[in-house]
Design a protein that fits this description.
heterodimer, A: alpha/beta, Rossmann fold, 2 domains, seven-stranded parallel beta sheet, five-stranded parallel beta sheet, about 30% helix, globular, B: alpha/beta, three-stranded antiparallel beta sheet, 8 helices
Chain lengths: ~350, ~280
């Protein structure tokens, strides 16, 4: 086995996601500490275009293939090419994104090649020539320290925002890698569908007979947002999210929610933050009308700053916020939006 | 039995021999504080064991598919088997029968070993459609479905918000950043069901609870699956836990009372901390 570290990029709809740069940065850093080489692997539509950004993180090489097979089938072609490359080149570790596809590829690689796999990793560093990791457990109540034993490439499935992006690179080589044949019994992908209704403004719609507020795509990706304005039952209904969306727009952030909100279809499900939804780590998290159950806390407690607004002075959220307002959202949020808009207009 | 070829127009296609298997995990109740023992494994209290909350959506989906397509819903679980409460509850929801894989050698199994065992059991069951939850609510790996699929050499349609079987194919929808995508694979296949399917898992009825007591639960050991103890358990795991620390949630906790002036205070906080 070499001391090389690889990062597998996450590309969705031809767009390189920020977690790819985070993983590539960490791969460069770990490989340097171990005295090995680092590489980023980009597969599918947009891979060629992603090579420059991946190279800028400091990796030594970018391996690319923009063959159509990667977007035509779920997980299997990516597994086939990575399994072959891992066997030929024996990297010490491969970092993969904790996305649906990243987990599916990691699971298949672990089973096919008999490799160890650690998932939900939030920190990784070199200690005594081995990779030492931190993995949150039991809804974030504990941080578990983990490492690997024995031989074989280590598979590390890391969470969004676990690693910082470095921009130290120049002169990464680009290597085009071959594409595998289409899998015989593969899961064939079509779409996306239902994109006609997508607009750059939030709007009301109906889902399963329930009214729903749909924030625009630019304010829908909670995992990549630096600022999140999040709402709970205290928002009162789907219409109430228009105010939160306006604040998110003013701040340049995204709209999030607690679980009851998406269970009742007030917002689409990918806005749900918490133990059973997305895990986020923004600069600022504004919790509006969210009581702060442990399940919600698990998804947002590593935010840099937490501001809570709630009518109930006994809400648990006030025990883990930096600034708490015992007050009425319907008054505070529009006023705050105006203050932020005016400030940004004059700065 | 694997599904036979579909009729020419499989609008409503019922197959009495269809085998839908729902893989269920028994997890500790999410309400109870957790700790690790000296062996770095979770301290388990059998009386706090529940159906993994994500798997309730999966059981519901299995029952809905059975109502449309016919066949049986079999619950497959791997665990110590100290209590059958979660299994009985799944049967009370309407599942046909249960299989528990339990063997002392399984203690400390990692995700790869778990997938290996489930794949062996699913092969023995000759499952046509295998349903998983999106992840467990204790480990949050979401990785066992793909490990199992790889050991079975079968397609996995992951993170489904809609599942439709037509003829010999299964098609799912999955939320995309904008809109949704679909994926189709031939049966037999594995599907992991996203919580976002939001299918209102049913509560067991009184009648369901009574009939569940008589439904068969088989217990299989490693030997029944033709697996060797060296392939599973703590000894086969390539991951090691070296320690654990509680997470501190200490914060400033400045409290501002009342709506008047609150927006101004938040605004100042944002400026003070260079957030805007």
């Amino acid at each position: 086995m070499t001391n090389d570290i690889w990062a597998v990029a996450d590309i969705e709809g031809g767009k390189l996601k920020s977690i790819s740069l985070q993983l590539a940065s960490k791969a460069a850093q770990l490989a340097a500490a171990l005295g090995g080489q680092s590489a980023a692997v980009a597969l599918g539509k947009g891979a060629q275009e992603a090579a420059a950004a991946l190279g800028a993180t400091g990796v030594n090489a970018v391996l690319v293939s923009d063959d159509a097979v990667y977007d035509a089938y779920l997980a299997q072609p990516a597994t086939d090419v990575l399994a072959q490359l891992i066997q030929q080149r024996q990297p010490k570790a491969v970092l993969l994104p904790a996305t649906v596809t990243g987990r599916d590829v990691a699971g298949r690689l672990a089973a096919r090649l008999g490799l160890g796999v650690e998932y939900n990793v939030t920190a990784a560093d070199v200690a005594d020539g081995e990779i030492a990791m931190v993995v949150p457990a039991f809804g974030g109540q504990l941080n578990v320290n983990a490492t690997f034993a024995g031989d074989g490439t280590r598979l590390i499935v890391a969470r969004q925002n676990a690693f910082a992006i470095t921009k130290t690179g120049s002169g990464a080589t680009t290597e085009t890698i071959p594409a595998p044949a289409a899998p015989a019994n593969g899961a064939k992908v079509s779409g996306p569908f239902g994109t006609e209704g997508a607009t750059e403004e939030g709007h009301m719609t109906t889902v399963n007979g329930h009214p729903q507020y749909v924030p625009p795509p630019s304010r829908s990706n909670v995992e990549e947002a630096a600022i999140i304005v999040s709402g709970g039952r205290g928002v009162g209904g789907p219409e109430g999210f228009a105010d939160l969306d306006a604040l998110a727009k003013a701040l340049g952030g995204a709209v999030g929610s607690s679980r009851p909100v998406t269970d009742d279809e007030w917002l689409p499900h990918h806005h749900h933050i918490g133990q059973t939804g997305r895990t986020v780590k923004p600069e600022l998290y504004i919790a509006c009308g969210i009581s702060g159950a442990v399940q919600h806390q698990a998804g947002m407690q590593t935010s840099k700053y937490i501001i809570a607004i709630n009518k109930d002075k006994d809400a648990p959220i006030f025990t883990f916020c930096d600034l708490g307002v015992v007050g009425d959202l319907k008054v505070v949020i529009p006023e705050l939006t105006k203050l932020v808009e005016d400030y940004k207009a004059s700065h | 039995m694997h599904a036979p070829s579909p009729p020419a127009f499989p609008q409503i296609w019922r197959n009495p021999t269809l085998k839908i298997v729902v893989c269920m995990k028994e997890t500790p109740s999410t309400e109870v504080p957790k700790s690790l023992g000296a062996d770095m494994r979770l301290v388990r209290n059998p009386s706090d064991t529940i159906i993994n909350p994500f798997d309730e959506y999966t059981i519901e989906e299995g029952l809905r598919q059975q109502e449309k397509l016919g066949g049986d819903v079999i619950i497959l679980t791997m665990g110590p088997g100290t209590t059958n409460d979660p299994m009985r509850r799944a049967l009370a929801m309407g599942a046909t029968s249960g299989v528990l894989v339990s063997d002392p050698a399984l203690a400390g199994s990692d995700a790869v070993a778990t997938g290996r065992v489930l794949a062996a059991a699913l092969k023995k069951l000759e499952a046509d459609l295998v349903l998983f939850g999106q992840s467990s609510a204790d480990a949050y790996g979401g990785i066992v479905p793909s490990i199992t699929a790889e050991f079975m050499g079968m397609p996995l349609l992951s993170y489904a918000t809609k599942v439709e079987v037509a003829g010999n194919n299964v098609t799912i929808e999955r939320e995309a950043e904008v809109g949704y995508t679909t994926a189709t694979a031939p049966l037999p296949a594995l599907v992991s069901v996203a919580k976002a399917i939001n299918n209102n898992p049913r509560y067991p009825s009184m009648k369901g609870i009574m009939t569940a007591k008589k439904k068969p639960i088989e217990t299989w050991t490693l030997a029944d699956l033709g697996l060797d103890a060296a392939q599973v358990g703590a000894g086969a795991a390539k991951e090691r836990v070296t320690g654990a620390t509680p997470v501190s949630t200490q914060r400033r906790r400045e409290i501002y009372n009342g709506s008047a002036g609150a927006a101004q205070r938040i605004f100042e906080f944002l400026v003070e901390n260079k957030i805007i």
